[in-house]
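Q: I'm building a small set of examples for a reading group on sequence design. Run inverse folding on the following structure and report the sequence directly after it, with nothing in between.
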């Protein structure tokens, strides 16, 4: 593995005991590859609060470098600080600071902090340099931004508030990443921007998820996946080829690492990892 590059794995907090057992065996297999850290998502408004804590507690108990995600939308500043204090007491040194998406139908929104930049500033104000702060980046633009240029400026504001590095939303077009990084560098922002990598294992759920988060599946990939219908083996084989090729392009273009959206499964990420010869 290239020691100059940062490789990390994202998990989500399981809903059931069975899911937790599965997560633990996934982590055991992925940890053998010695990633820089595992991150664990957090449901906006605290919807996964206790499950995120349980997952983070277990990861920490295993001596694993853990980066909890923390969203600010719908949370009070007092609650947010309480969570950050908890993490600091656990010896956690890295936080993924996000605005969050209110779960549909909850009416959640607003709150005391409405943008991730405010959460980043709050963390810096209360915790100094204790936490390494990761933020989200959108090479294909955040879906709610009025336009790409405004989104770039908002990203810069978030970095100026004190972010140390960024992880991107997933995408399947390496040019989008290269262009985003160029545009950000032209705005004087020099933090590492690590591409987020989503393995392809199932077409219908990927299509649904991508529509919701504004990630584009290029037409040639979509059409080929559609053509495979229920042929899961072919979808996985083609997905592996596409995503490995994307990772190779990104690393060759100077990406400072890769952040894998594992979806709590070891095999799809390990297949890419092994093909890349990391
Ligand atoms: P922001 O940086 O606040 O940006 C959100 C929107 O507001 C953008 O359109 C931006 O242009 C605009 N904006 C920013 N600042 C301003 C301003 N000052 N004035 C006006 N507009 C502004 N969601 C979860 O709920 N839980 C998770 O654990 C989680 N993990 C994620 C991990 C990664 C790596 C990524 C890429 C996303 C993750 N998300 C998660 C999704 C994320 O919460 C959503 O994409 C959310 O809609 C935006 O979050 P943000 O932190 O990027 O927000």
């Amino acid at each position: 593995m290239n020691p100059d590059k940062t490789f990390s794995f994202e998990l989500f907090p399981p809903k059931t005991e069975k899911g937790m057992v599965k997560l633990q065996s996934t982590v055991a297999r992925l940890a053998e590859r010695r990633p820089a850290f595992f991150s664990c998502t957090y449901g906006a408004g605290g919807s996964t609060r206790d499950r995120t804590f349980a997952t983070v507690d277990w990861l920490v108990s295993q001596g694993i470098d853990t980066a909890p995600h923390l969203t600010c939308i719908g949370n009070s500043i007092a609650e947010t600080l309480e969570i950050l204090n908890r993490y600091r007491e656990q010896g956690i040194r890295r936080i993924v600071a996000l605005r969050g998406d209110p779960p549909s139908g909850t009416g959640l929104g607003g709150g005391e902090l409405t943008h991730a930049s405010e959460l980043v500033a709050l963390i810096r104000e209360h915790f100094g340099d204790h936490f390494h702060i990761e933020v989200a980046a959108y090479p294909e633009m955040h879906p709610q931004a009025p336009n790409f240029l405004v989104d770039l400026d908002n990203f810069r504001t978030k970095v100026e508030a004190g972010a140390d590095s960024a992880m991107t939303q997933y995408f399947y077009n390496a040019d989008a990443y290269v262009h985003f990084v160029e545009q950000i560098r032209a705005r004087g922002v020099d933090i590492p921007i690590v591409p987020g990598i989503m393995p392809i294992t199932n077409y219908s759920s990927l299509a649904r998820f991508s529509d919701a988060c504004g990630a584009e599946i290029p037409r040639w990939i979509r059409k080929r996946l559609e053509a495979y219908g229920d042929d899961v083996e072919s979808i996985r084989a083609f997905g592996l080829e596409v995503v490995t090729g994307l990772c190779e392009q990104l690393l060759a273009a100077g990406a400072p690492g890769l952040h894998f959206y594992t979806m709590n499964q070891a095999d799809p990420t390990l297949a890419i990892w092994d093909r890349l010869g990391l």
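The pocket of flavin-adenine dinucleotide is lined by residues 41-44, 69, 71, 96, 98-101, 115-117, 136, 142, 144-145, 151, 154, 157-158, 167, 169, 196 (CB under 6 Å).
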